[in-house]
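Residues pack. One example:


***
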Amino acid sequence: MAPFASGAALKSDDPASSSLGREFDFTEDDFRFLAKCAYEHAGIALSDNKVNLVYGRLSRRLRALKLPDFKAYREYLIANDREIENFINSISTNHTKFFRESHHFDHLHANVSGPFGRNRTPGRRMRIWSAGCSSGEEPYTIASVLARDIPDLKRHDVLILATDIDTEILTKAARGEYQPAALDEIPPAYKPFFSAETRAGREAMVVADELRDIVRFKRLNLMQDWPIRGLFDAIFCRNVMIYFDAPTKARLIDRFIAQLKPDGWLYIGHSESLTGGHPGLKLMGRTIYRKTG
């Protein structure tokens, strides 16, 4: 198993975790072990300035498991493979919103979904991957662009694969329910695909079934094997690779290129870059690349 393959980001420091008095013994050996575990299982590079972060986030697991210290937690991790998933979920977070980095969706409309929608040949196929989908805002944004550009959507084989390493966040994403304020993030042209409703006695913004029907949420660790068949018209992997070291990032880019159709598109985050470029990709816009060759 591995942590960052799906796009989670390291959580910000907990104020309580930086206090001088600590509830649990936490040694340098403990941190080194956990950092090694994070890197080997998820490609996450935990630098020394993440000590308080790791302590603050994992202390919750120690309390839940009623463990006396981090040495005991290390032993528990070794003996229980399933705890790796909880470990990854604990040190990762998912900060995102609808139409984040909106120029990517403008480009998707102009170069991918728009041309597809203008071609009236029935039964054509489109695949888009949201790698590191977090709580679902990104794949549902993509789905709304596709639904607006392809009026006869059900006549075509159109699907969005949405993956993340965090199982808890995937469960939330699949529900398609968000805080009412999320509706403010939706441009007017796309608001018909979202509605304000009352669910379980509380107000929520709800994603239309039309969008949910074309999104498939799956757990996937980007550092492991990808049980994926076929190639993608576009891959979104945004604000994920910033947490990887250079060799891990280079391997991931190579794998993404192999999963793209000829002339397919790769969208990365605003704080990420392909230093020195890549022979298999051509920069076509701000953090927008096209497969070449």
In short: The radius of gyration is 20 Å. The first helix runs from residue 28 to 42. The chain has two domains: 4-93, 103-291. DSSP finds nine helices and twelve strands in the chain.
